[in-house]
Design goal:
The complex is a heterotrimer of chains A (232), B (285) and C (342). Chain A is globular. By secondary structure, chain A is α/β, with parallel strands linked by helices. Helix content of chain A is 37%, strand content 26%. With 285 residues, chain B is an all-alpha fold. Helix content of chain B is 74%, strand content 3%. Chain B has eleven helices and two strands; from the N terminus they run ααααββααααααα. In chain B, helix 1 packs antiparallel against helix 8, helix 2 crosses helix 9 and helix 5 crosses helix 6. Chain C has a domain of 218 residues. Chain C is built from 15 helices and six strands. In chain C, the strands form three sheets. A two-stranded antiparallel sheet of chain C has the order 1-2. In chain C, strands 3-6 form a two-stranded antiparallel ribbon. The chains are: A alpha/beta (232), B mainly alpha (285), C mainly alpha (342). At the B-C interface, helix 4, helix 9 and helix 11 of B face helix 5, helix 12 and helix 14 of C.
């Protein structure tokens, strides 16, 4: 479904991403991306979602080259993203912001999203006034509207405890299976990733290091020396 | 003829560089536009006029910037710091209000007519350059402009505070994380910016004039230059000031009836071609 | 439903979560009564002079509405509102004198011209960040100001002297003399204020309004939610300039005169101050602010002093009273009412 070909992103003279090749196959799969700080994980998401124009390479979505397409275009065509630093509408109520997006994307199944993210109790609260964990769920909910085929998430576990992150990932895995969508999740919490993801990719210093099942990655010598150490 | 055109452009650009770089520095550092910058310039000019009457041009050139630097410090402590949590738009509006107050206060004190300031004796008269007779004062003006440009460039390039200013202008979040004392930096930049406005004001006296409308016309010029130059780009502002000076002077020579519109045409043409301005300013958020 | 979140609508009433359907017709009735009374009672009670000040206040209030709407809905401050307000008057005058158009045709032409101008200007400047936008509107406003003073256009604009506007025939059944008459103009200005206020209200309540406010709050998330953010802002800019165009035309019909002062920066800042004083959030605030400003200006007399106070007002209202007078009152009423329903 998503093909990343030789993707590079430069910040001035710094190569944040260096010729990364990656394929995200398809529906029902949870694909985790891990790697040390500065590996380029967030940059990869930025380049794929159109937030940052790549300096080289291409992004192909369902066979079509979307490298030059706008962020809004990608969203309307099924590629959605959630943010590391929760990005919601503080002054609007939860209901208001979800409805605004749902109407725009023509999604009549908003109720499903609200149930899936357990937001029923918070609908009339102003988003700025609810707990951080709930805000994060709103952030994800916004990304789920419109039944996207591909969901990209940037460290959804940031600011959550290990247990909360694991729960989130289990939840994500269920969502992904139920809705038949693909999800690519950049995450620091390696345990949650290994426990729940179907495929894991490791990035290091802007380069693709390895891709495989959690078991394969855990056993991969390169990955161990670069990132996991002997704690894996 | 071309030489004259270039010389006059440089003279005008010299004033504009002194003013716009101050504006651009604050903009790059704090993301704040001081809409009262034109009023500061006007204050510098009127103070220069009064001091010159009492003690001569050179005294004015020394004292006026010092007084304005003091005002800049007051501005930093009493306006910018207390309003730190507010949105940039709100701060900009406050500076607009303060600029209006200052401008009206000056008109109240000095009245509504223009004042003339004579060039000092040492700089009166003309000099022969490239076979043409050119006012010595304007040469002095150009020298001051180039000098301040050079001083600014050297400071930005080689001093620690200059490095910090460049870093924060490029990416405020990163620089702040690295422990740059943004407050002390801001105080330095604000007072320098005000001092330069004072210098420009005094220098403007013998070259343009000292009149009630000068705050508005100058702030508009500076704003155009800062926008053309690009956010946070000092180099861009300097290039833009040179471009502006040239367009304005050339306009008044070749199309005198429409000359007043020349800078605006420049602005909109640049916006069409390069919406982010000329300089390589802040990285997109 | 939790909280009973009270939402304040533009006309200043509060629609409560529980009571809305029952109260609405009563509210509309009250509004209609207020409209009717306001249109005709003052003309019988107040002097010509007072009516003139009042109408001027309403016109400034409508211009303030233009500024306020863009600020509250799009988060953009337009400092060049006077250039459209005065510019439309100039175009009207030129159409009449130079091109001999009928007054109605001249009105239409002038209005369409400023709408096109604001679309073109907006197309260029709406893309920039809000601070740059503010700078650019100031520059554009000054550009128009310089344009009417150009020597090359002196034949059209009469430079600093300004243009006298005197049309023969009728516009919407009213003659030039009718518009100039304070007693007859007051209901016109009053009706226009209500009309524009309601239009602004309707747009605020529409999905377009919600989109604008969401873009203002988190532009990036809107793009990542599939919204284009350029066109809505451009549309908002054209909308507020259309408002400025309408009240500018009313102004020139009433005053019969247009000069560089009509489009000067001080008119733009007056509108801004009026919006800040009244409160930028609704429709009543800015219009009331314009009214207050006009009355205050009449009290304080000298232009210089008024401008000085304008500067103070900007600082005071931004720093201390961000909701403005009317906005603050509405907020207090809302809080009081909420306590009442508990």
């Amino acid at each position: 479904m998503l093909e990343i070909a030789n993707l590079s992103v430069n910040y001035g003279r710094v190569r944040a991403l260096d010729g990364v090749d990656l394929t995200i196959k398809g529906a029902g799969a949870l694909h985790g991306i891990i790697g040390p700080n500065g590996a380029g994980k967030s940059t990869l998401l930025d380049a794929v979602t159109g937030r940052r124009p790549p300096s080289g390479g291409a992004v192909r979505y369902r066979g079509q080259d979307i490298t030059r397409k706008s962020v809004a275009w990608r969203r309307r065509h099924g590629m959605s993203r959630s943010f590391q630093r929760t990005s919601i509408f503080q002054d609007l109520s939860v209901r208001e912001q979800l409805t605004l997006i749902a109407r725009h994307l023509g999604d009549a199944t908003l109720g499903d999203v609200i149930d899936a993210m357990n937001l029923g109790d918070y609908l009339d609260e102003k988003a700025g006034r609810i707990a951080y964990g709930v805000q994060r769920r709103v952030d994800v909910a916004l990304a789920l509207i419109g039944r996207p085929d591909l969901l990209l998430m940037d460290e959804p576990g940031a600011g959550l405890s290990a247990e909360e992150t694991l729960n989130l990932f289990l939840h994500l895995r269920d969502l992904v299976r139920e809705r038949g969508m693909a999800a690519v999740v950049v995450e620091h919490d390696v345990d949650a990733v290994f426990a729940c993801c179907d495929v894991v990719t490791v990035l290091d210093l802007g380069r693709h290091l390895a891709t495989g099942t959690p078991a394969e990655i855990r056993a991969d010598a390169r990955v161990i020396s670069a990132y996991l150490g002997s704690a894996a | 003829m071309i030489a004259l055109l270039i010389a006059n452009s440089l003279a005008l650009a010299s004033l504009l560089i002194m003013l716009s770089s101050g504006l651009a520095l604050i903009y790059g550092l704090r993301d704040v536009i001081n809409f009262g910058h034109g009023a500061l310039y006007m204050l510098g000019a009127y103070l220069g006029y009064s001091i010159a009457l009492a003690g001569g041009f050179w005294l004015a050139l020394l004292v006026s910037p010092l007084l304005l630097a003091g005002l800049g410090i007051a501005f930093e402590y009493w306006v910018l710091r207390p309003l730190r949590g507010r949105s940039h738009i709100e701060v900009a509006l406050v500076t607009l209000g303060l600029g209006i107050i200052l401008g009206q206060a000056l008109i109240f004190v000095y009245g509504g007519e223009a004042r003339g300031v004579d060039a000092p004796a040492a700089l009166a008269g003309s000099v022969r350059l490239f076979g043409l007779s050119y006012p010595l004062y304007r040469i002095f003006l150009i020298a001051m402009g180039l000098g301040s440009c050079a001083a600014l460039a050297l400071w930005l390039r080689y001093s620690t505070s200059g490095l910090y200013v460049r870093a924060v202008s490029q990416d405020p979040s990163v620089a702040r994380m690295m422990g740059v004392n943004a407050d002390r930096l801001s105080l330095l930049v604000t007072s320098l910016s005000a001092a330069f406005a004072g210098v420009a004001g005094v220098l403007a006296g013998p070259y343009l004039s000292v009149d009630p409308g000068m705050d508005v016309s100058m702030i508009v010029n500076c704003l155009i230059i800062v926008v053309i130059g690009g956010t946070g780009s000092i180099a861009g502002a300097i290039v833009a000031a040179l471009l502006f000076g040239f367009v304005q002077v050339a306009g008044s020579v070749f199309l005198p009836d429409l000359a007043a519109l020349a800078p605006y045409v420049l602005l909109f043409v640049v916006l069409l071609i390069a919406p982010r301005g000329i300089g390589r300013g802040r990285a997109p958020a | 439903m939790s909280g009973g979140t009270a939402r304040v609508d533009a006309r200043g009433g509060a629609l409560f979560a529980g009571g809305a359907p029952a109260r609405a017709p009563l509210f509309v009735l009250l509004a209609a009564l207020l409209f009717g009374l306001g249109a005709f009672v003052p003309t019988h009670l107040l002097s010509e002079f007072a009516l003139r000040i009042g109408a001027g206040g309403l016109l400034l209030g409508m211009l303030a509405l233009s500024v306020a709407f863009l600020m509250s809905q799009a988060g953009l401050v337009a400092l060049g509102a006077a250039s459209v307000y005065g510019g439309v008057g100039y175009l009207f005058a030129i159409c009449l004198s130079e091109w001999d158009l009928s007054p109605t045709a001249a009105l239409l032409f002038a209005f369409v011209a400023v709408v096109v101008y604001s679309a073109a200007l907006g197309a260029l400047i709406v893309r920039t960040n809000p601070l740059a936008f503010m700078m650019l509107t100031l520059a554009a406003g000054e550009m128009i100001g310089h344009s009417v003073m150009l020597e090359g256009l002196r034949d059209y604009t009469s430079g600093a002297d300004g243009l006298v506007v005197n049309f023969k025939g009728a516009v919407f059944g009213l003659t030039s003399a009718d518009f100039a008459n304070a007693t007859q103009f007051w209901p016109i200005a009053w009706s226009a204020a209500w009309l524009l206020g309601l239009a602004a209200f309707a747009v605020r309540r529409s999905r377009f309004g919600a989109t604008l406010r969401a873009i203002r709050e988190n532009e990036e998330r809107m793009r990542f939610s599939g919204f284009g953010t350029y066109l809505p802002r451009l549309a908002a800019f054209v909308f507020v300039n259309a408002i400025a165009g309408v009240c500018g035309l009313l102004h020139v019909l009433n005053s019969g005169f247009v000069s560089p002062e009509s489009l000067g920066l001080s008119v733009s800042t007056n509108a801004l101050v009026a919006a800040l004083i009244g409160g930028v959030a609704g429709s009543i605030g800015p219009i009331a602010g314009g009214f207050l400003f006009a009355v205050a200006q009449d009290q304080f007399g000298a232009h210089g002093f008024t401008q000085l106070l304008t500067g103070f007002a900007i600082v005071v209202f931004i720093v201390l009273l961000p909701r403005g007078v009317v906005g603050g009152l509405i907020e207090a009423a809302r809080r009081g009412a909420r306590r009442g329903t508990r």
